[in-house]
Amino acid sequence: MYTYTLDELEALDAANVLKWAIRVYGSRFAIITAFQDEGMAIIDMATRMDRSVRVVTIDTGRLPAGTLEMIERVQSWYGIRIEVLRPDPDEVAGMVLRHGPNLFRDSVSQRRLCCEIRKVRPLARALEGLDAWASGLRRTQGIERAAAPRVDTSSPRLKLNPLADWTDGQLTEYLTRHRVPRHPLYAAGYASIGCEPCTRPAGSGREGRWWWEQGAAKECGLHFMPDGGARRELDILLEEILHAQRIHTVDNGNVGVRQEHPCRDSAGSLP
To answer: In the prediction, which pLDDT does 232 show?
Structure first.
């Protein structure tokens, strides 16, 4: 009943994709959110099906007060517990010692380093305990996201973008009809909400993110793989921090390269 091909999953609507993920993966599935409208729609939809669904957020240490308030508000509104992830304090301290607290203003590479340590690496640690996760990506959020699939099998863990094909109108209609709580910064003119020093009010989309950058993709790394050159430069900066702090990643032999997507059966279907 819950076995679909990739094409069949892609054709499901948002609610049925979430229902499938909750039934198939249970506690090995989570919604990753920063409480923007898209994430709130997904939380609302999923908790109507199962209030035990896992909801995870990342406290980067630079969040606006409104986002921290949303954690408490959402837990109270839906009667759920939100798992709050934080960056490694030694990695943050090493980065700040070497580059200063506002390194993101100095170059795109250093901004991506800050995102890597404060957002991407905490998420990567969380995903180690998951088989599938959901994000609020929509194709209308920017050119980098225009081709986002509803079901992304490009990495070892299945990534679902239930609202990938939703328009702004569809999102607004859902939020209004179900009286979904909204982040308070929307009322202050924000169209996209990230870390406090890296976001400002803007007309639409992600224009308010890292507004001082010219020509750089408006992505932090959670949903976007930079080009090879940018990736290599980021890796060098990150390695400097890890080496300086004597932080070493030890392979305990439990993690290996998967030759096939872990969610596929021998026939190529997803459970």
So the answer is: 60
Task: State the total domains in the chain.
Answer: 1
Q: What angle do CA 250, 54, 20 make, to 5 degrees?
A: 105
Residue 159 located in a structural domain: yes
The CATH number linked to 28 is: 3.40.50.620
Distance between CA atoms of 127 and 6, rounded to whole angstroms?
21
| Residue 145 predicted with pLDDT over 80 | no
Whole-number Cα distances in Å, 94 to 52, 58, 85, 219:
37, 19, 19, 23
Q: Between 108-115 and 228-244, two packed helices, what is the crossing angle to 10 degrees?
A: 60
Question: Is the torsion defined by CA of 80, 42, 37, 57 positive or negative?
Answer: positive
Question: Which string of DSSP letters, residue by residue, matches 174-201?
Answer: HHHHTT----GGGGGT-SS---GGGB--
pTM: 0.81
Of the candidates 248, 27, 49, which has an alpha carbon nearest to the alpha carbon of residue 126? Answer: 27
pLDDT: which is higher, 162 or 147: 162
Tell me if 266 is assigned to some domain: no
For residue 215, what pLDDT band results from cuts at 50, 70 and 90? Answer: low
The 10s digit of each residue's pLDDT in 220-258 is: 445 444 444 445 667 777 787 777 665 444 444 443 333
Catalytic residues: 220
Query: Which residues, in sequence order, are bridge partners of residue 82?
Result: 55
